[in-house]
Every structure is written in C-alpha cells, then in structure tokens.
From TrEMBL:
Keywords: Hydrolase, Protease, Thiol protease. InterPro entries: NLP_P60_dom, Papain-like_cys_pep_sf, Peptidase_C40, SH3_16. GO terms for molecular function: cysteine-type peptidase activity. This is Peptidase P60. GO terms for biological process: proteolysis. PANTHER family: MUREIN DD-ENDOPEPTIDASE MEPH-RELATED. It comes from Methylobacterium radiodurans. Residues 155-280 form the NlpC/P60 domain. Belongs to the peptidase C40 family. It holds the Pfam family NLPC_P60. The lineage of its organism: Bacteria, Pseudomonadati, Pseudomonadota, Alphaproteobacteria, Hyphomicrobiales. It comes from the Bacteria.
Length: 287
C-alpha cells in the first residue's frame, strides 16, 4: 500500500532513517526527540507562517525533529504520527516527561503561586506539564506555577469522551485546531478520545478506517459515543438522536438533532453519511 504522506517523514531530499529502502531520498537521518514548550503550536504544511495549518501540537507533546532551518523544524508528532513544520522556538528538550495534564477547559501559567500576579500564558484542556513540586494550591513547573485544582496526574483519564465534548460546546471552529480556543471536527474527536486514554488518528478519514466497529448505516439504535462519518466530516452522538460536532455551519462546537445535521450536510456540503462506528466500552490500542 502507498504510504500516507501525512504520516510519512519523507521528502525527496530528506527522510527518516527507518524508511531507508522504502522511499527515495538523498539523505536519511534519525529523528531528534524534542517536546513542545509553548501552549500550542500550529503544524504547517510548509515552513512559512502563511502556510495552511494541518493540526496543532500542544504543550508537552513529544515530537521527532528531522531538520532545523530558517526558524522552522520539520517534525513528526509522536502521539498521532502527523508530519509537518513547527517553529523552532516552540520546541525544547524532551526531558523531563510530563507528570500532569490540564483538566480544566483553560487555566493560567503564573510567574508565582499567586492568583493576583499577571499570568504568563494560558493553557488549554489536555496540555501536559512536568511538575517539579508544589507550593500551597499551585504546582510548580519549569516556567512558573499552575493552579493544582485545574490539573490531574497524567495517567488519570476521562472515560466519558462524549461528556468531554459537551464541555466544549461553543468553542469556535478552527480548521486544523485541536485546542479549546478552536477545533475542527476531527480535532474535537481526537482530543476527547485521547483524554479518555484512547488512541485516535488525526483526520476524519483516518478515524473512520481505524476506530471501533462499523454499525448498520441506517442511523437506528445509536448510543452515546457512536461516531457518525461523512466524506470529510465526523460527529459524535450524545444519545440516540443528538449529534455534537465542530462544524463550519455554526462555526463552533454545537449540538443538534442528528437528522437535522444529516439533511443539511447532504444538501450543502459533505453528502450522505458514509459510516457509523461504535467504540468498545474500554479503551485499547487503536480503539
């Protein structure tokens, strides 16, 4: 099968050394482990600030770096394999590994354990932190302090991924986004499933191929957490009749009757539903 270019660190001039013998490139290199050190970092298709955004990396995400040039790095994200360009100043050392994750929709990074101090940055749901200690109600990290009540140990999960999606109702739609400041349809699904401890690809077509088991495509007997796919779009069921999805019609994460969405999408955008998939009740690799 041909390699998916979204997930293949290979260009005519450079490729990951593990692909030697499978792709043609003038030079093969081993990736250099790094980690995202900013709240979020757009992963772009080309090394230019004008290039489109394919997805976002967030604080604590691990990456493999294959090239650094002119302020950009060519990388592969470890958690979903996506390949693209991040700015060089968005990355730092791979260690220490994260110990906690932001569980609130948003929180602030303070210069001191004091809520009256002006924050240095905001951090979104899912951002990963390497905690080095505590001071009162705050966790100490490399660049400051975060309110402990907004964080959880990194191994703790949110099993109700549909419930996580409900918390994001009203978050604005952003093509390529996967943070609480903006998400696209598959970014919403990926964020919610990863916080539930489930492996999830990035794009809707990848999710449709990889996640769960196919159900009859008659939209009957649906349950909370079922995923409904169109060609280029995905939403999640909150129950047997209501769909939650990040979409360009509302320009936000919104809840609406499934049949309303089906009719509108058929007429105006992605065509008919292509499949419905159900995830197992307990997470496993690729679920």
């Amino acid at each position: 099968m041909p390699l998916d270019p979204r997930l293949t660190p290979a260009r005519p001039d450079l490729a990951d050394i593990v692909l030697e013998g499978r792709v043609k490139a003038r030079r093969f290199v081993a990736g250099d482990a790094r980690r995202v050190v900013v709240p979020s970092a757009p992963l772009r298709r080309a090394p230019s600030m004008e290039s489109g955004i394919d997805t976002e990396a967030v604080l604590g995400d691990a990456v493999q770096v294959y090239e650094v040039r002119d302020g950009f790095t060519w990388v592969q994200l470890v958690h979903d394999g996506y390949v693209g360009y991040l700015t060089a100043d968005s990355l730092g050392p791979a260690d220490p590994a994260p110990t906690h994750r932001v569980a609130a929709l948003r929180t602030f990074l303070y210069p001191a354990p004091d809520l009256k101090r002006p924050p240095r940055a905001h951090l979104g749901l899912g951002a990963a932190l390497a905690v080095t200690g505590t001071e009162g109600d705050y966790l100490r990290v490399a660049d400051g302090y975060v309110f402990a009540g907004h964080c959880r140990p990194i191994h703790e999960v949110e099993p109700d991924f549909a419930g996580t999606a409900e918390r994001l109702v009203g978050a604005p739609y952003l093509w390529g986004g996967r943070t609480t400041l903006g998400l696209d349809c598959s970014g919403l699904v990926q964020l919610c499933l990863e916080l539930a401890g489930r492996t999830c690809p990035r794009d809707a077509d990848q999710q449709e191929r990889a996640l769960g088991e196919a159900l009859p495509n008659d939209l009957a007997d649906l349950r909370r957490g079922d995923l409904v796919f169109w060609r280029g779009h995905v939403g999640m069921m909150l129950d047997g009749t209501r769909l939650i999805h990040a979409n360009g019609h509302h320009m936000a994460v919104a809840v609406e009757p499934l049949q309303t969405a089906v009719a509108r999408i058929l007429e105006k955008s992605y065509g008919p539903v292509t499949s419905v998939r159900r995830l197992p009740l307990t997470p496993s690799a690729g679920s």
